[in-house]
Amino acid sequence: MKISDIFFVIKRRFLEKRNIIFMFVSCFLIFSLLISLTIYHYFNNYKKDELTRNSFYRTISVSSSITPHEIEEIVNLDHVIYIKKRNQGTLSLTMKNFANFKDADIDIKPLLDKNELKIIKGRLPQNADEVVCATKFYPYEIDERNGFNHKYFIKDKNLIGTSFTINYENVTKTLKIVGTYDYFKVMDSMNTCYINEELFNTLVPIDPKNDYDIKIDKNENVEEVASILKNMGINYHVPQTSNGDMESLKYIPIFASLLATLISYLVIYYFIKKKIRYHISDYGILKATGYTNKEIYKIELLENTLIFTLCFIITTIIFLLVYYYLINIPYVSYFVFTSTENLRLPLTSFLLTYLIIFILNVICLKFLMKYLINNRSVYDLLEDKL
Amino acid sequence: MNLENITKTYNLKNEQITALNNLTYKFEKGKLYAIMGHSGSGKSTLIKIMGLIEKPTSGKYTINNTDISTLNDKELSLLRMKHIGFIFQEFYLNDHLKAYENVILPMLINPEIPKNDRQKRALSLLELVGLQERINHFPKELSGGEKQRIAMARALANDPEIILADEPTGNLDEENETIIFNYLKELSEKGKCVIVVSHSDNVKKYADEILIIQKGKLETHENI
After folding, report:
1. Of A31, A136, A315, B210, whose CB neighbour count within 10 A is largest?
2. A221 CB near a chain B CB, below 8 Å?
3. Are residues A83 and A170 located together in one domain of the fold?
4. For A341-376, what is each residue's pLDDT tens digit?
């Protein structure tokens, strides 16, 4: 039986009241599934980004004094990119490799402590000991006020000490970037901290320490290098690779996704059952005129798939509108995309949602067809005897 | 069509009812058979079994030497589609489809009828039953007699050799009854095996053979 023939059978009943209600409910279910899976997607990516993008998780800190010979040995180890004396002594060293987003060290705290500076919020610095950070301007984005965009920020190699004129509540001041505020351990224009221009050159650098950082190529190789250091008798510190809070939070979207899938299954089951029962005498007519159970299954499957596809398209448009509305709210975009370079659409969530809905449709339909149609005589179907 | 010791029983509230009891008969092409009997005699059950709408409890039923008890759903459906046209007392038309679309419905699964010929064939069948003016009407817009004629056109859609009609004039007036019986007689004269279950004595005027069923048994058999 060709698809055009199936359309012939369903063309008028497709938009009947029962199906319209089914479509509304399906849209809501698909929307819930999309949201749950998208949140899950971001949680997963956040963790992955934390591990892959942030060099913090592939840096082994060595606090003991090590000899030049040991340094040479460590540098020659597999998976070691470099060993470097920790760069806390000067301002510029807070960002070792600014061109490369991944390798930025982002902590202004030691510098603030050393110079007894305070982070203020909601206004521009007035006193000599005041530093203001972009996040503290929330809900006003500092980058919006200065045409200060992400791309420019990331590409610039030497932003420490760069002057910016900032207008805030009718006050105009020229400030210099003094470093970045360690918030999500990620370099971002929202993390930049500013200080009065005249104060910048008087800052006291942080005392250098005899600590070393060993950069490893990949996270999964950190343990291997650490065990070699242990054998060499070198004291080291391996950073925690996962954040406990994030781990436990991860279960919320997983649970939400499972719940949305379960509810979807129950609702789809209920609606398909109601629909089959409503059309049962129509199936009797089809059977009496020579249609096989398989052909009736195809008709029902195509009708439901069309309903779900239509709902999926409508819901996706609504979802995208909501999505783009949300990412334009500064705080939400900052939270959601803080660990990502670009605003990526969760394509996997879309595919997974459609797949889940389609599989649920097939499972429910197979079961209900067998239970309500296949095992009954044509006469029972015609007479709607269930 | 050959029926051998066909028995059909129903279980109703711990009580077993025998609708057909060891019924044996052979039907041939080119004849109009009238099956008559009182209400509850088992005549409708018999025609439903012959139309593969219901299954017998026991006995052997063969069509063109094929034992239907050995067939699966696909084979039974093929047999219904190619060889049997069933006209129901309740019409059983699809309310979502127009008159001509109801007639096209059985043709959708018949590979022997090309797609381009379906509409033409449906229209000629509706013309045959005198409904050329009603092709674009939905069933709810038609009278009982018109619905029955659409059901008849649908039964003829795939040009089956067996036409089964269960009380085809049960809901119709005398004028429509005469129209329907005339069509059925024409079909039998064209070489089809037409079997009609009816209460109406008028059917006797058209029948080649009359079978009287009482309490699930074939009581008398008259050759006209």
Report:
1. A315
2. no
3. yes
4. 444 567 777 888 888 888 988 999 999 998 888 888
Instruction: Examine the domain organization and report whether A208 and A101 are in the same domain.
Output: yes
* Alpha carbon of residue A163 to chain centroid: 33
ipTM of this predicted structure: 0.90
Q: Clarify whether residues A214 and A84 are in a common domain.
A: yes
8 A C-beta contact, residue A107 and residue A182: yes
List chain A residues with pLDDT less than 50.
Answer: 88-106, 138-158, 182-187, 242, 244, 334, 337-343
Report the residue from A8, A290, A293 with minimal CB separation from B81: A290
Mean per-residue pLDDT of chain B:
89
A261 touches B53 (CB < 8 A): no
Strands A171-180 and A192-196: antiparallel
Q: Which residues contact A152 (CB under 8 A, 6 or more apart)?
A: none
Provide the residue count of chain A: 386
Of A205, A237, A269, the residue at which a domain comes to its end is A237
Q: Which chain B residues have a beta carbon less than 8 Å from that of A287?
A: 77, 80
* Cα–Cα distance, A320 to A281 (Å, whole number): 41
A97/B contact by beta carbon, under 8 A: no
| List of chain A residues whose C-beta atoms are within 8 Å of the C-beta of residue B78 | 290
Secondary structure class of A171 (helix, strand, coil): strand
Q: What integer pLDDT is reported at residue A287 of this predicted model? A: 92
Residue A289 has its nearest CB partner, among B55, B81, B90, at B81
Mean pLDDT of B148-176: 87
- Nearest residue on chain B to A378, alpha-carbon basis: B53
User: Which candidate in B52, B79, B101, B109 is best for mutational testing of the A interface (most A CBs within 10 A)?
Assistant: B109
Q: How much is the pLDDT for A87? A: 52
Domain count, chain A: 2
Q: Quote the pLDDT of residue A94.
A: 31
Q: Are residues A36 and A117 in the same domain?
A: no
Write a three-state SS string for B12-59: ECCEEEEEEEEEEEECCCCCEEEEECCCCCCHHHHHHHHCCCCCCCEE
From A200, A222, A237, the end of a domain falls on A237
Indicate if A118 and A163 belong to the same structural domain.
Answer: yes
Q: Can you tell me the distance from the alpha carbon of A141 to that of A121, in angstroms, rounded to the nearest whole number?
A: 13
A133, A281: one domain: no
State the residue range of the domain holding A114.
55-237
Q: Are A183 and A277 part of one and the same domain?
A: no
Residue pair A253/A36 in contact by the 8 Å Cβ criterion: yes
CB of A125 within 8 Å of a chain B CB? The answer is no
CA distance B179 to B141: 20
**Amino acid at residue number A45:** N
Average pLDDT over residues B128-152: 89
Looking at 3.10.20.600, 3.40.50.300, 3.30.750.24, 3.30.460.10, the CATH number of the domain B2-223 comes to 3.40.50.300
What CA–CA distance (Å, rounded) separates B76 from B47? 16
